[in-house]
What does this fold into?
Amino acid sequence: QVQVVESGGGLVQAGGSLRLSCAASGSIFSINTMGWYRQAPGKQRDLVATITSTGVTNYFESVEGRFAISRDNAKNTVYLQMNSLKPEDTAVYYCNAEVLVRAYLRPSAYWGQGTQVTVSS
It folds into this structure.
């Protein structure tokens, strides 16, 4: 019904940059908050950044100032620009979208498959 597809991960040296993309498609009436989460080996999945439908952003403290989340509502797409990457940023990055499939329904969370980001020292 709703699909969330991520892209843009890869291997980069410390100090480098990557731009992640996540596109939602399917039976979508509207999308509320979209966000990025990450899960490092042996650790839990943690929030990285979120952005509301009106563009209000929130960042995890360790990435604020280095990462920037944005979205294109017309394309149902959210982006994560990652600059000044550090080895500790290495993780699988997951996209989340709070989707209303039709008006007056409660939003449901949909997750992407994840994309690997590896930062070498």
The chain has no helices and eleven strands. The chain has a mean pLDDT of 96.
